[in-house]
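Sanity check

After download, print the first record. It should look like this:
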Amino acid sequence: MKLIFAASLMICSVNLFSQDSIMLVRTMGKLPFIEYGIGDDRLGGAKMTYLDSNILLKVVDSFKTDYKVQLSKYHSGYIAKENVMILKKQLDKPVVHNTHLSGSFRVYGDNDFDYVNINLDERLPYYSFHLINPSAIAIDIFGVTSNTNWITQLSTAKEIKNTWYQQIEDDVFRVFIELKHPQHWGHSISYDSAGTRLIVRVKRQPAVLDIRKLKIAIDAGHGGDNAGASGVVSKVLEKEYTLLIAKELEKTLKKAGVKKIFMTRTKDTSLTMPERIEMLKAFTPDILLSVHLNSAATDTVQGVSTYYRYIGFRPLSVAILNQMEKLGLKEYGNIGNFNFALNGPTDYPNALVEVAFLSNEKDEKRILSPKFHKAVAQRIYLGIVDWLKSLK
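Expected structure tokens:
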């Protein structure tokens, strides 16, 4: 009897919303994001998209710390309850889809960026992804039906080649932004401060593909109360050696003539991922390099690996991996769609470098060597140079 009663309570706690009722909420807080499902790992669930604040969402169910939100008729996702504010609860009738319309587009540029302004009648959720060969940005805006009858494209746009849209579903509006260069240099999406106009800001390829002209951000992984992995023999902490390698990379770049370098940390500082992302947003880097040391449950696993999330940023991570292998490190691989927070921003090309495994005795011995730190910094630098040469 007790077991049956407990099971009934569990079912009731999940099924908070009936088929005929929903709840309206708006996003809030720093870096709210939607996940594809309820799966989880040490880096969190697989993220679909980061969102701006004050975006309208329709909650249809609840699961632990997340709400399930209906993005369109056939698409849903999950958002943390702490990242939304409730507007209306338990509406008597479901909100009908296809009530929101798109308006005109405006494509233009200023001194630094290109823009696509998309007029909407509500701040609605969106999801963007890269296309390659040819390079383009695609953006799905959920809950929208087209009433777009003109797209004004001005010659002040320097990186945007073409802009168009498709109504891929009755309530999913897909915008295409074709780029002039093969390499994606970054984009950001937000609503205007007071209204419902969606603004896509597109970063242009630098006029001169010279590493000395780039703004480069370096992130030393972990720090402070986040120690990271530890050595299998020496017991040294990952946070200490990522900082040593990051500082060597900074020295190498300065020696090469790079003048604009930003370090997310220069000492044993505790920083959350949102704090790092906010710092990087303020610096507006051309590229970000995050330095980590790997660890595995099996001590025979070893080698170097690089990571990216978006396909348009992959070439940078591949070029760095190719150079790192020249140190005699075993190849662990180039890993895509990686759910690491600093691979998440779409604003700039970024690469996570897992230099070697602290859990492997051979790799660990190399990690302890200051000479190795300098060699790693040199190879990362040469990887960036190779990547830039491939774009000319």
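If your output differs, re-run the checksum step. Summary of this record's structure: Residues 370-390 form the longest helix (21 residues).
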